[in-house]
């Protein structure tokens, strides 16, 4: 078989190859065996009609289209490998000349292929530097958050204040009638959290344990229960208990409770500052890299075929499905809860998908121009780093990566990362 690949545009080309006559003849025989199983011919059981009788009744040419399908399926992969290119999608199949048993068949197959990006400027690009200094106020805010996490609720004397937790009974009435779902006993609510109907929590401020009160509110117009939407209502409230947060003191003991590796509050503050600085630097590095890739992509010329965008959308939908499934819901449930659809999601994703495809093609072109290579040793080292980061054994990681292309995909990712490193090394902060 002689196969020839000729590019006709940035993202299409034609593969021409000749399948031998004997291969076509075998395909015709295979087509007959498939077709004869489906024929109902008086005097013959299914699958038992002799070939000469079939040819006389239908003509052997009736098998040629099925034979072509079989022949193409059996030969195209070898032709692609011989021509040395990677197709993305099939566009069209043509057969050159007239089909005839005992003669070779010439296929002309149009494939969509990955286009090459025509690079523009990608060195010396400018980016907006992000501030990475950690302020005393940010450290204090982090300490305050840790204090709140360590706070405990304790029964208090006196009136309800914002931020307190109230334990109470309530019963709701509208039009003088008690309505369904508006009654509870020993209900616990943080006052000021905004969980109840507007005005309810505000009227509980100032109440004391044992006190009873009528709370007058109006349901919002958009309330989910139609029979209550926009209506005034009265809630008969009986307060049982008021609890207040007891926040731990900011001292050395607090610091040791939070982090056993420190012995003082000052050490905890220093550790918090170090962690916040590391997070800011990582975020700043990611922002810088994104800016440089966006600029290099904008400077390049790329003809992106629609099929590549659709494939990227497929990946994005799959990624989103994985994220929501980690929260215990599947995509169908998500669409029901949000009132959206997969078609609407795919449409929204198209623009971002196209940008992702362009960026990938630009990084691939940079890697080729800069002759970036990634060795097996580089990939193994990355696998070890991933193993430590995710606490997963290297062999288990290999198994997990196998459906996505395994080590070769990992090497491709490393190549892209090295291409971005070149943008960074040659980039300039504004």
Provide the structure class.
alpha+beta
From the alpha carbons, calculate the radius of gyration and give it in angstroms: 35 Å
The CATH superfamily of one domain is Trigger factor ribosome-binding domain
Cα separation of the termini: 58 Å
Order of helices and strands, N to C?
A: EEHHHEEEHEEEHEEHHHHHHHHE
DSSP strand tally:
11
Give the integer mean of the pLDDT values: 93
CATH class of one domain: Alpha Beta
Strand residue percentage: 15-25%
Overall outline: extended
Q: Could you say what the CATH topology of one domain is called?
A: Alpha-Beta Plaits
Unreliable stretches covering 5 or more consecutive residues: none
CATH architecture of one domain: 2-Layer Sandwich
Instruction: State the major sheet.
Output: 5 strands, antiparallel
Assign a percent range to the helix content: 40-55%
- Per DSSP, the total helix count is 13
List the keywords.
single chain; 430 residues; alpha+beta; Alpha-Beta Plaits; Chitinase A, domain 3; five-stranded antiparallel beta sheet; four-stranded antiparallel beta sheet; 13 helices; 47% helix; 20% strand; extended
